[in-house]
Design a protein that fits this description.
The complex is a heterodimer of chains A (about 450) and B (about 100).
Chain A: E1 3-8, H1 19-27, E2 32-38, H2 45-49, H3 56-73, E3 77-84, H4 88-105, E4 109-115, H5 120-128, E5 132-134, H6 143-147, E6 151-154, H7 159-166, E7 171-174, H8 179-189, H9 194-204, E8 219-224, E9 227-232, H10 241-247, E10 257-260, E11 263-266, E12 271-274, E13 280-283, E14 286-289, E15 293-312, H11 315-318, H12 321-340, E16 347-354, E17 373-381, H13 384-400, E18 420-429, E19 433-436, E20 445-451
Chain B: H1 4-7, E1 8-15, E2 20-27, H2 30-37, H3 44-51, E3 59-63, E4 68-74, H4 94-97
Antiparallel strand pairs in B: 1-2, 2-4, 3-4
Classes of the chains: A alpha+beta (about 450), B alpha+beta (about 100).
Protein backbone atom coordinates (compact mmCIF):
# COMPACT_ATOMS: atom_id res chain seq x y z
CA UNK A 1 0.00 0.00 0.00
CA UNK A 2 1.30 3.43 -0.91
CA UNK A 3 2.16 5.62 2.07
CA UNK A 4 3.90 8.85 2.98
CA UNK A 5 5.52 9.70 6.31
CA UNK A 6 5.89 13.28 7.49
CA UNK A 7 8.13 14.03 10.45
CA UNK A 8 6.84 17.00 12.47
CA UNK A 9 9.63 17.73 14.96
CA UNK A 10 7.72 20.36 16.95
CA UNK A 11 4.58 22.44 16.77
CA UNK A 12 6.58 25.64 16.50
CA UNK A 13 10.09 25.99 15.14
CA UNK A 14 12.23 27.10 18.06
CA UNK A 15 10.34 25.24 20.80
CA UNK A 16 12.72 22.29 20.67
CA UNK A 17 12.54 18.54 20.30
CA UNK A 18 14.49 16.08 22.50
CA UNK A 19 17.48 14.60 20.67
CA UNK A 20 16.29 10.99 21.16
CA UNK A 21 12.88 11.86 19.67
CA UNK A 22 14.44 13.43 16.55
CA UNK A 23 16.79 10.47 16.25
CA UNK A 24 13.92 8.01 16.45
CA UNK A 25 11.87 10.03 13.95
CA UNK A 26 14.61 9.93 11.32
CA UNK A 27 15.17 6.21 11.93
CA UNK A 28 11.58 5.67 10.74
CA UNK A 29 12.58 6.89 7.28
CA UNK A 30 10.24 9.85 6.75
CA UNK A 31 9.50 11.25 3.28
CA UNK A 32 9.72 14.88 4.43
CA UNK A 33 10.17 17.06 7.49
CA UNK A 34 7.56 19.78 7.94
CA UNK A 35 7.27 22.37 10.66
CA UNK A 36 5.29 25.51 11.28
CA UNK A 37 7.13 28.61 12.47
CA UNK A 38 4.34 31.10 12.91
CA UNK A 39 0.92 32.05 14.16
CA UNK A 40 -1.36 35.04 14.55
CA UNK A 41 -1.81 33.99 18.15
CA UNK A 42 0.83 36.30 19.55
CA UNK A 43 -0.84 39.32 18.02
CA UNK A 44 -0.48 41.85 15.20
CA UNK A 45 2.81 43.24 16.54
CA UNK A 46 4.88 40.56 14.78
CA UNK A 47 3.21 41.11 11.40
CA UNK A 48 3.55 44.89 11.72
CA UNK A 49 7.19 44.91 12.78
CA UNK A 50 8.47 41.68 11.11
CA UNK A 51 10.14 40.80 14.44
CA UNK A 52 10.37 37.09 15.25
CA UNK A 53 8.79 35.85 18.46
CA UNK A 54 11.19 32.91 18.67
CA UNK A 55 14.76 33.96 19.41
CA UNK A 56 17.47 33.42 16.82
CA UNK A 57 19.22 31.04 19.21
CA UNK A 58 16.15 28.83 19.62
CA UNK A 59 15.41 28.69 15.87
CA UNK A 60 19.06 27.97 15.16
CA UNK A 61 19.20 25.14 17.70
CA UNK A 62 16.16 23.41 16.14
CA UNK A 63 17.43 23.84 12.58
CA UNK A 64 20.91 22.61 13.49
CA UNK A 65 19.27 19.44 14.78
CA UNK A 66 17.19 18.91 11.62
CA UNK A 67 19.23 20.10 8.60
CA UNK A 68 22.19 17.63 8.66
CA UNK A 69 19.85 14.66 9.12
CA UNK A 70 17.39 15.85 6.51
CA UNK A 71 20.16 16.31 3.93
CA UNK A 72 21.63 12.90 4.77
CA UNK A 73 18.20 11.35 4.26
CA UNK A 74 17.76 13.24 0.99
CA UNK A 75 14.29 14.50 1.93
CA UNK A 76 12.84 18.02 1.80
CA UNK A 77 12.41 20.29 4.83
CA UNK A 78 9.38 22.57 4.60
CA UNK A 79 8.98 25.47 7.03
CA UNK A 80 5.76 27.49 7.14
CA UNK A 81 5.18 31.08 8.27
CA UNK A 82 8.86 31.84 8.78
CA UNK A 83 9.78 34.39 11.43
CA UNK A 84 6.42 34.20 13.30
CA UNK A 85 4.23 36.26 10.94
CA UNK A 86 5.47 34.94 7.58
CA UNK A 87 6.70 38.33 6.39
CA UNK A 88 9.33 38.67 3.66
CA UNK A 89 11.85 39.65 6.35
CA UNK A 90 10.82 36.54 8.32
CA UNK A 91 11.69 34.31 5.34
CA UNK A 92 15.06 36.05 4.96
CA UNK A 93 15.69 35.68 8.71
CA UNK A 94 15.24 31.89 8.60
CA UNK A 95 17.17 31.66 5.28
CA UNK A 96 20.07 33.46 6.92
CA UNK A 97 20.10 31.01 9.84
CA UNK A 98 19.94 28.03 7.44
CA UNK A 99 22.87 29.50 5.47
CA UNK A 100 24.90 29.86 8.65
CA UNK A 101 24.28 26.25 9.66
CA UNK A 102 25.09 24.91 6.17
CA UNK A 103 28.38 26.82 6.11
CA UNK A 104 29.23 25.55 9.56
CA UNK A 105 28.68 21.89 8.61
CA UNK A 106 30.35 22.35 5.23
CA UNK A 107 27.29 21.47 3.17
CA UNK A 108 25.26 23.21 0.49
CA UNK A 109 21.54 23.00 -0.23
CA UNK A 110 19.10 24.52 -2.68
CA UNK A 111 16.85 26.84 -0.68
CA UNK A 112 13.46 28.04 -1.94
CA UNK A 113 12.13 31.28 -0.50
CA UNK A 114 8.42 31.74 -1.11
CA UNK A 115 7.36 35.25 -0.19
CA UNK A 116 3.80 35.99 0.94
CA UNK A 117 3.62 39.76 1.27
CA UNK A 118 1.05 41.43 -0.98
CA UNK A 119 1.30 45.06 -2.06
CA UNK A 120 -1.67 47.26 -1.19
CA UNK A 121 -1.97 48.47 -4.81
CA UNK A 122 -2.25 44.86 -6.03
CA UNK A 123 -5.00 44.13 -3.52
CA UNK A 124 -6.85 47.34 -4.36
CA UNK A 125 -6.92 46.17 -8.02
CA UNK A 126 -8.27 42.79 -6.99
CA UNK A 127 -10.88 44.48 -4.77
CA UNK A 128 -12.00 46.57 -7.75
CA UNK A 129 -12.35 43.35 -9.79
CA UNK A 130 -14.64 41.90 -7.09
CA UNK A 131 -12.19 39.17 -6.03
CA UNK A 132 -12.02 40.08 -2.32
CA UNK A 133 -14.77 39.08 0.10
CA UNK A 134 -15.18 39.22 3.88
CA UNK A 135 -15.37 36.26 6.24
CA UNK A 136 -17.81 36.46 9.15
CA UNK A 137 -18.10 38.63 11.22
CA UNK A 138 -16.28 41.25 9.10
CA UNK A 139 -17.60 43.76 6.56
CA UNK A 140 -16.36 44.21 2.99
CA UNK A 141 -12.98 45.93 2.70
CA UNK A 142 -12.55 49.42 1.32
CA UNK A 143 -9.66 50.83 -0.69
CA UNK A 144 -8.86 53.20 2.20
CA UNK A 145 -8.69 50.32 4.68
CA UNK A 146 -6.29 48.41 2.45
CA UNK A 147 -4.11 51.48 2.02
CA UNK A 148 -3.99 52.10 5.79
CA UNK A 149 -2.27 48.75 6.43
CA UNK A 150 1.40 48.53 7.33
CA UNK A 151 1.75 45.03 5.92
CA UNK A 152 -0.49 42.47 4.18
CA UNK A 153 0.23 38.76 3.73
CA UNK A 154 -1.66 35.96 2.00
CA UNK A 155 -1.71 32.41 3.37
CA UNK A 156 -0.10 29.99 0.93
CA UNK A 157 -1.71 26.69 0.13
CA UNK A 158 0.20 23.52 -0.79
CA UNK A 159 0.93 24.37 -4.45
CA UNK A 160 3.81 26.88 -4.11
CA UNK A 161 5.66 24.46 -1.81
CA UNK A 162 5.04 21.58 -4.23
CA UNK A 163 6.48 23.63 -7.08
CA UNK A 164 9.59 24.34 -5.03
CA UNK A 165 10.04 20.64 -4.29
CA UNK A 166 9.56 19.76 -8.00
CA UNK A 167 12.18 22.39 -8.84
CA UNK A 168 14.63 20.51 -6.63
CA UNK A 169 14.64 22.69 -3.52
CA UNK A 170 15.82 20.85 -0.41
CA UNK A 171 14.86 23.52 2.12
CA UNK A 172 11.57 25.29 1.44
CA UNK A 173 11.04 28.48 3.43
CA UNK A 174 7.50 29.81 3.19
CA UNK A 175 6.21 33.18 4.15
CA UNK A 176 2.75 33.07 5.66
CA UNK A 177 1.20 29.69 4.90
CA UNK A 178 -1.68 27.72 6.37
CA UNK A 179 -0.34 25.53 9.17
CA UNK A 180 -1.80 22.48 7.46
CA UNK A 181 -0.52 23.13 3.91
CA UNK A 182 3.06 22.77 5.14
CA UNK A 183 2.33 19.23 6.34
CA UNK A 184 -0.13 18.22 3.60
CA UNK A 185 1.89 19.28 0.54
CA UNK A 186 4.06 16.16 0.22
CA UNK A 187 1.32 13.51 0.77
CA UNK A 188 -0.86 15.38 -1.76
CA UNK A 189 2.02 15.47 -4.26
CA UNK A 190 2.38 11.73 -3.93
CA UNK A 191 -1.27 11.33 -4.89
CA UNK A 192 -2.54 10.25 -1.48
CA UNK A 193 -6.19 10.97 -0.64
CA UNK A 194 -7.03 14.64 -0.17
CA UNK A 195 -9.22 14.10 2.91
CA UNK A 196 -6.65 12.00 4.80
CA UNK A 197 -3.76 14.32 3.81
CA UNK A 198 -5.44 17.51 5.11
CA UNK A 199 -6.89 15.82 8.18
CA UNK A 200 -3.51 14.31 9.12
CA UNK A 201 -1.97 17.76 8.66
CA UNK A 202 -4.55 19.39 10.93
CA UNK A 203 -3.96 16.78 13.65
CA UNK A 204 -0.16 17.14 13.55
CA UNK A 205 0.17 20.91 12.94
CA UNK A 206 0.86 21.68 16.62
CA UNK A 207 3.28 18.77 17.10
CA UNK A 208 2.84 17.22 20.52
CA UNK A 209 -0.50 18.96 21.26
CA UNK A 210 -2.23 15.83 19.86
CA UNK A 211 -0.26 13.58 22.26
CA UNK A 212 -0.46 12.97 25.99
CA UNK A 213 2.74 14.78 26.95
CA UNK A 214 3.65 18.19 25.60
CA UNK A 215 7.39 18.35 26.26
CA UNK A 216 8.60 15.25 24.46
CA UNK A 217 8.86 16.57 20.90
CA UNK A 218 6.62 16.16 17.89
CA UNK A 219 4.85 13.45 15.96
CA UNK A 220 5.03 11.35 12.80
CA UNK A 221 2.06 11.11 10.48
CA UNK A 222 1.77 8.29 7.98
CA UNK A 223 -0.78 8.97 5.25
CA UNK A 224 -1.95 5.94 3.28
CA UNK A 225 -4.59 5.25 0.66
CA UNK A 226 -6.86 4.09 3.52
CA UNK A 227 -6.45 6.99 5.95
CA UNK A 228 -3.64 8.05 8.26
CA UNK A 229 -1.83 7.09 11.44
CA UNK A 230 -0.27 9.36 14.00
CA UNK A 231 2.34 8.53 16.62
CA UNK A 232 4.65 10.52 18.88
CA UNK A 233 8.34 10.66 18.00
CA UNK A 234 9.35 9.97 21.60
CA UNK A 235 9.07 6.36 22.75
CA UNK A 236 7.78 7.45 26.19
CA UNK A 237 4.89 9.45 24.72
CA UNK A 238 1.47 8.25 23.50
CA UNK A 239 -1.26 9.29 21.11
CA UNK A 240 -4.73 8.23 22.23
CA UNK A 241 -8.10 8.46 20.53
CA UNK A 242 -8.97 11.22 23.03
CA UNK A 243 -5.75 13.21 22.49
CA UNK A 244 -5.99 12.97 18.68
CA UNK A 245 -9.72 13.58 18.23
CA UNK A 246 -9.57 16.56 20.61
CA UNK A 247 -7.02 18.23 18.35
CA UNK A 248 -9.50 18.48 15.49
CA UNK A 249 -11.36 20.89 17.80
CA UNK A 250 -8.30 22.95 18.72
CA UNK A 251 -8.30 26.58 17.53
CA UNK A 252 -11.03 25.64 15.09
CA UNK A 253 -14.42 27.36 15.17
CA UNK A 254 -16.09 24.39 13.44
CA UNK A 255 -15.31 20.90 14.83
CA UNK A 256 -15.71 19.06 11.54
CA UNK A 257 -15.00 21.40 8.66
CA UNK A 258 -11.74 23.09 7.88
CA UNK A 259 -11.49 25.49 4.96
CA UNK A 260 -8.14 25.43 3.18
CA UNK A 261 -7.10 26.98 -0.14
CA UNK A 262 -9.16 25.19 -2.80
CA UNK A 263 -10.49 22.53 -0.49
CA UNK A 264 -12.85 21.93 2.44
CA UNK A 265 -11.95 19.12 4.82
CA UNK A 266 -14.97 17.27 6.19
CA UNK A 267 -14.02 15.18 9.22
CA UNK A 268 -17.59 14.57 10.41
CA UNK A 269 -17.47 10.90 9.38
CA UNK A 270 -13.94 10.27 10.66
CA UNK A 271 -13.31 7.18 12.81
CA UNK A 272 -10.51 7.25 15.37
CA UNK A 273 -9.18 3.90 16.58
CA UNK A 274 -6.38 2.95 18.95
CA UNK A 275 -3.93 0.92 16.86
CA UNK A 276 -1.66 0.02 19.76
CA UNK A 277 -0.43 1.65 22.97
CA UNK A 278 1.08 4.66 21.19
CA UNK A 279 -0.58 4.99 17.78
CA UNK A 280 -3.98 6.11 16.51
CA UNK A 281 -5.47 5.35 13.09
CA UNK A 282 -7.97 7.69 11.48
CA UNK A 283 -10.18 6.74 8.54
CA UNK A 284 -13.22 8.26 6.86
CA UNK A 285 -11.96 11.83 6.32
CA UNK A 286 -13.26 13.51 3.17
CA UNK A 287 -12.42 16.66 1.30
CA UNK A 288 -14.31 18.52 -1.38
CA UNK A 289 -12.81 20.85 -3.93
CA UNK A 290 -13.95 24.48 -3.85
CA UNK A 291 -12.96 27.72 -5.55
CA UNK A 292 -9.37 28.61 -4.77
CA UNK A 293 -9.20 31.38 -2.16
CA UNK A 294 -6.26 32.86 -0.29
CA UNK A 295 -6.88 34.16 3.21
CA UNK A 296 -5.47 37.59 3.98
CA UNK A 297 -3.90 38.95 7.14
CA UNK A 298 -2.87 42.53 7.71
CA UNK A 299 -1.69 44.81 10.47
CA UNK A 300 -2.30 48.49 10.95
CA UNK A 301 -1.16 51.09 13.47
CA UNK A 302 -3.73 51.60 16.24
CA UNK A 303 -1.87 54.45 17.97
CA UNK A 304 0.78 54.98 20.61
CA UNK A 305 0.24 53.72 24.11
CA UNK A 306 1.29 54.54 27.66
CA UNK A 307 0.64 52.23 30.60
CA UNK A 308 0.21 53.17 34.26
CA UNK A 309 -0.16 50.63 37.02
CA UNK A 310 -1.09 51.16 40.65
CA UNK A 311 -1.92 48.78 43.50
CA UNK A 312 -4.74 49.45 45.97
CA UNK A 313 -5.18 47.76 49.36
CA UNK A 314 -7.15 50.51 51.14
CA UNK A 315 -10.24 48.63 52.44
CA UNK A 316 -12.42 51.75 52.30
CA UNK A 317 -11.89 51.82 48.53
CA UNK A 318 -12.12 48.07 47.96
CA UNK A 319 -15.39 47.84 49.89
CA UNK A 320 -17.09 50.04 47.26
CA UNK A 321 -14.75 49.38 44.38
CA UNK A 322 -17.08 49.69 41.36
CA UNK A 323 -18.35 53.04 42.60
CA UNK A 324 -14.82 54.27 43.29
CA UNK A 325 -13.63 53.16 39.84
CA UNK A 326 -16.49 54.99 38.07
CA UNK A 327 -15.67 58.18 39.95
CA UNK A 328 -11.97 57.77 39.10
CA UNK A 329 -12.80 57.37 35.40
CA UNK A 330 -14.93 60.52 35.56
CA UNK A 331 -12.34 62.65 37.28
CA UNK A 332 -9.61 61.55 34.85
CA UNK A 333 -11.86 62.40 31.88
CA UNK A 334 -12.63 65.84 33.30
CA UNK A 335 -8.97 66.65 34.02
CA UNK A 336 -7.95 65.62 30.51
CA UNK A 337 -10.73 67.74 29.02
CA UNK A 338 -10.41 70.80 31.27
CA UNK A 339 -6.72 70.92 32.16
CA UNK A 340 -5.27 69.65 28.88
CA UNK A 341 -7.98 70.83 26.50
CA UNK A 342 -7.96 67.38 24.82
CA UNK A 343 -11.33 66.03 23.66
CA UNK A 344 -12.43 62.44 24.27
CA UNK A 345 -12.21 61.81 20.49
CA UNK A 346 -8.44 62.27 20.61
CA UNK A 347 -7.58 59.38 22.90
CA UNK A 348 -8.70 56.06 24.35
CA UNK A 349 -8.36 55.24 28.04
CA UNK A 350 -8.93 51.72 29.37
CA UNK A 351 -9.10 50.94 33.12
CA UNK A 352 -8.39 47.27 33.94
CA UNK A 353 -8.78 46.35 37.62
CA UNK A 354 -6.81 43.10 38.00
CA UNK A 355 -7.96 41.18 41.04
CA UNK A 356 -11.49 42.51 40.61
CA UNK A 357 -12.61 42.12 37.00
CA UNK A 358 -9.44 42.65 35.02
CA UNK A 359 -10.60 40.60 32.05
CA UNK A 360 -13.90 42.48 31.81
CA UNK A 361 -17.03 40.77 30.60
CA UNK A 362 -20.25 40.29 32.49
CA UNK A 363 -18.64 39.03 35.65
CA UNK A 364 -21.10 37.68 38.24
CA UNK A 365 -21.47 40.28 41.02
CA UNK A 366 -21.02 39.60 44.72
CA UNK A 367 -17.55 38.07 44.59
CA UNK A 368 -16.67 39.68 47.96
CA UNK A 369 -14.08 42.30 48.89
CA UNK A 370 -10.65 41.61 47.42
CA UNK A 371 -7.49 41.95 49.52
CA UNK A 372 -5.87 44.12 46.84
CA UNK A 373 -6.48 45.25 43.28
CA UNK A 374 -3.87 46.06 40.63
CA UNK A 375 -5.26 48.77 38.41
CA UNK A 376 -3.77 49.04 34.94
CA UNK A 377 -4.58 52.11 32.91
CA UNK A 378 -3.81 52.12 29.19
CA UNK A 379 -3.90 55.36 27.25
CA UNK A 380 -3.77 55.23 23.45
CA UNK A 381 -3.43 58.36 21.31
CA UNK A 382 -2.14 59.48 17.95
CA UNK A 383 1.36 60.28 19.23
CA UNK A 384 3.54 58.84 21.92
CA UNK A 385 3.89 62.27 23.50
CA UNK A 386 0.12 62.83 23.73
CA UNK A 387 -0.49 59.40 25.32
CA UNK A 388 2.25 60.10 27.87
CA UNK A 389 0.86 63.56 28.69
CA UNK A 390 -2.63 62.14 29.22
CA UNK A 391 -1.31 59.36 31.45
CA UNK A 392 0.69 61.94 33.44
CA UNK A 393 -2.43 64.09 33.83
CA UNK A 394 -4.16 61.10 35.45
CA UNK A 395 -1.23 60.41 37.79
CA UNK A 396 -2.47 62.49 40.76
CA UNK A 397 -5.84 60.69 40.63
CA UNK A 398 -4.24 57.24 40.49
CA UNK A 399 -2.13 58.21 43.49
CA UNK A 400 -4.64 60.04 45.70
CA UNK A 401 -8.26 59.64 44.58
CA UNK A 402 -10.49 58.72 47.55
CA UNK A 403 -13.79 59.03 45.71
CA UNK A 404 -15.24 60.66 48.83
CA UNK A 405 -14.78 64.42 49.40
CA UNK A 406 -15.04 64.04 53.19
CA UNK A 407 -12.39 61.28 53.43
CA UNK A 408 -8.72 61.99 54.18
CA UNK A 409 -6.46 61.79 51.13
CA UNK A 410 -5.11 58.26 50.49
CA UNK A 411 -1.87 57.42 48.65
CA UNK A 412 -1.94 54.23 46.62
CA UNK A 413 1.05 52.06 45.73
CA UNK A 414 2.90 52.70 42.49
CA UNK A 415 5.28 49.80 41.92
CA UNK A 416 8.02 51.81 40.17
CA UNK A 417 9.08 55.28 39.09
CA UNK A 418 8.13 56.88 36.81
CA UNK A 419 4.64 55.43 37.14
CA UNK A 420 4.00 55.80 33.41
CA UNK A 421 5.57 53.38 30.93
CA UNK A 422 5.47 54.30 27.23
CA UNK A 423 4.66 51.17 25.19
CA UNK A 424 5.40 52.75 21.83
CA UNK A 425 3.30 51.98 18.75
CA UNK A 426 0.50 49.43 19.10
CA UNK A 427 -1.09 47.56 16.22
CA UNK A 428 -4.32 45.83 15.27
CA UNK A 429 -5.30 43.08 12.83
CA UNK A 430 -7.03 44.69 9.88
CA UNK A 431 -8.26 41.90 7.60
CA UNK A 432 -10.48 38.87 7.89
CA UNK A 433 -11.00 38.42 4.16
CA UNK A 434 -10.19 36.10 1.30
CA UNK A 435 -9.17 36.78 -2.27
CA UNK A 436 -10.16 34.44 -5.10
CA UNK A 437 -7.29 33.59 -7.46
CA UNK A 438 -7.08 31.78 -10.80
CA UNK A 439 -3.72 30.21 -10.07
CA UNK A 440 -2.56 29.05 -6.58
CA UNK A 441 0.85 30.63 -7.30
CA UNK A 442 -0.61 34.01 -8.26
CA UNK A 443 0.09 36.03 -5.14
CA UNK A 444 3.42 34.50 -4.17
CA UNK A 445 6.97 35.23 -5.31
CA UNK A 446 9.58 32.46 -5.43
CA UNK A 447 13.34 32.74 -5.31
CA UNK A 448 15.98 30.04 -5.21
CA UNK A 449 19.39 30.35 -3.62
CA UNK A 450 22.23 27.98 -2.92
CA UNK A 451 22.73 27.99 0.84
CA UNK A 452 26.09 27.29 2.44
CA UNK A 453 28.35 28.70 -0.24
CA UNK B 1 -26.72 23.28 42.83
CA UNK B 2 -24.52 21.47 40.31
CA UNK B 3 -22.44 23.63 38.00
CA UNK B 4 -20.56 22.93 34.80
CA UNK B 5 -17.34 22.93 36.80
CA UNK B 6 -18.62 20.06 38.96
CA UNK B 7 -19.29 17.68 36.08
CA UNK B 8 -16.96 18.62 33.19
CA UNK B 9 -13.66 16.77 32.87
CA UNK B 10 -12.07 19.76 31.17
CA UNK B 11 -13.21 23.09 29.77
CA UNK B 12 -10.96 25.26 27.62
CA UNK B 13 -11.15 28.33 25.40
CA UNK B 14 -8.83 29.57 22.67
CA UNK B 15 -8.68 31.87 19.67
CA UNK B 16 -9.80 30.36 16.39
CA UNK B 17 -7.94 32.95 14.36
CA UNK B 18 -7.78 36.61 15.45
CA UNK B 19 -11.54 37.18 15.13
CA UNK B 20 -13.16 34.13 16.80
CA UNK B 21 -13.20 32.41 20.18
CA UNK B 22 -13.94 28.74 20.59
CA UNK B 23 -14.82 26.94 23.83
CA UNK B 24 -14.56 23.15 24.19
CA UNK B 25 -16.36 21.30 26.99
CA UNK B 26 -15.10 17.73 27.53
CA UNK B 27 -17.43 15.39 29.44
CA UNK B 28 -16.78 11.92 30.78
CA UNK B 29 -19.86 9.99 29.67
CA UNK B 30 -23.16 10.06 27.80
CA UNK B 31 -25.11 10.99 30.94
CA UNK B 32 -22.96 14.07 31.63
CA UNK B 33 -23.10 15.00 27.95
CA UNK B 34 -26.91 14.80 27.88
CA UNK B 35 -27.12 16.80 31.09
CA UNK B 36 -25.08 19.70 29.70
CA UNK B 37 -26.98 19.52 26.39
CA UNK B 38 -30.16 20.09 28.40
CA UNK B 39 -28.80 23.04 30.39
CA UNK B 40 -30.92 26.20 30.04
CA UNK B 41 -27.95 28.34 29.01
CA UNK B 42 -26.76 26.09 26.16
CA UNK B 43 -28.27 28.15 23.36
CA UNK B 44 -27.06 31.10 21.28
CA UNK B 45 -29.14 33.65 23.18
CA UNK B 46 -27.87 32.81 26.65
CA UNK B 47 -24.29 32.36 25.43
CA UNK B 48 -24.44 35.76 23.76
CA UNK B 49 -25.52 37.35 27.04
CA UNK B 50 -22.81 35.62 29.07
CA UNK B 51 -20.04 36.75 26.71
CA UNK B 52 -21.55 40.05 25.55
CA UNK B 53 -21.60 39.11 21.86
CA UNK B 54 -24.21 38.99 19.08
CA UNK B 55 -26.54 35.96 19.36
CA UNK B 56 -26.90 35.49 15.60
CA UNK B 57 -23.24 34.53 15.25
CA UNK B 58 -23.00 32.09 18.19
CA UNK B 59 -22.59 28.47 17.06
CA UNK B 60 -23.14 25.46 19.31
CA UNK B 61 -21.90 22.05 18.14
CA UNK B 62 -22.81 18.93 20.13
CA UNK B 63 -20.38 16.07 19.34
CA UNK B 64 -21.96 13.00 20.97
CA UNK B 65 -19.33 10.53 19.65
CA UNK B 66 -16.70 12.30 21.77
CA UNK B 67 -18.97 13.62 24.56
CA UNK B 68 -17.79 17.10 23.69
CA UNK B 69 -19.64 20.38 23.25
CA UNK B 70 -18.09 23.11 21.18
CA UNK B 71 -19.22 26.74 21.30
CA UNK B 72 -17.82 29.34 18.88
CA UNK B 73 -18.51 33.05 18.58
CA UNK B 74 -16.78 36.18 17.24
CA UNK B 75 -14.48 37.92 19.71
CA UNK B 76 -15.84 41.07 21.34
CA UNK B 77 -12.66 42.79 20.15
CA UNK B 78 -10.26 41.42 17.55
CA UNK B 79 -7.16 39.86 19.04
CA UNK B 80 -4.40 42.28 19.96
CA UNK B 81 -6.52 45.41 19.47
CA UNK B 82 -6.34 48.08 22.14
CA UNK B 83 -9.38 46.75 24.01
CA UNK B 84 -8.43 43.07 23.94
CA UNK B 85 -7.69 41.85 27.46
CA UNK B 86 -7.12 38.17 26.74
CA UNK B 87 -4.78 37.80 23.75
CA UNK B 88 -5.28 34.05 23.34
CA UNK B 89 -8.89 33.96 24.66
CA UNK B 90 -7.50 31.37 27.05
CA UNK B 91 -9.46 32.55 30.12
CA UNK B 92 -12.84 33.12 28.49
CA UNK B 93 -14.22 29.69 29.42
CA UNK B 94 -14.24 30.62 33.11
CA UNK B 95 -17.52 32.50 32.67
CA UNK B 96 -19.19 29.16 31.91
CA UNK B 97 -17.85 27.22 34.91
CA UNK B 98 -20.45 28.53 37.35
CA UNK B 99 -23.42 27.89 35.06
CA UNK B 100 -26.04 25.46 36.38
CA UNK B 101 -26.44 22.08 34.74
Amino acid sequence: MQSCKILVPTGMLGSGCPEEAIERGFSMRPDAVAVDAGSTDSGPYFLATTHSKMTRGAVRRDLAQIIPRQLDAGIPLIIGSCGSAGTDAGVDYVADICGEILTEIGRTAKIAKIYSEIRATDLVDRLARGQVRPLPPSLPLTKEEIESCIRIVGLQGAEPMQKAIRDGAQIILCGRATDTAVLACVPLMKGLPTGASWHAAKIAECGSVCTERLRLGGVMITVTSAGFEVEPLHIDNRCTVASVSAHMLYENSDPFRLIEPGVILDASGAKYEQLDHRRVRVTGSFAETTSYTIKLEAARLAGYQTMSFVCIREPKVLERFDQWLSSLEEVCASWIRDNMNVSSQEYDIDFRPYGWNGLGGNWPPGSGVPFEVGLMVLVTAETSELSLQIARACNPALLHWSGDPSAPMPSFAFPYSPAETPRGPVYEFAMNHVVTVDDPLDLFRMEYTEGGQ
Amino acid sequence: MTTLRDIARHVRSKNAGPFWVTVDIFLDGDAEFERVCGAPWLNPNSISQIFGVNASSVKVFPIPEQNVLKISFPRRYPQGGIHDRDQHSGQQFVLLLGQKV
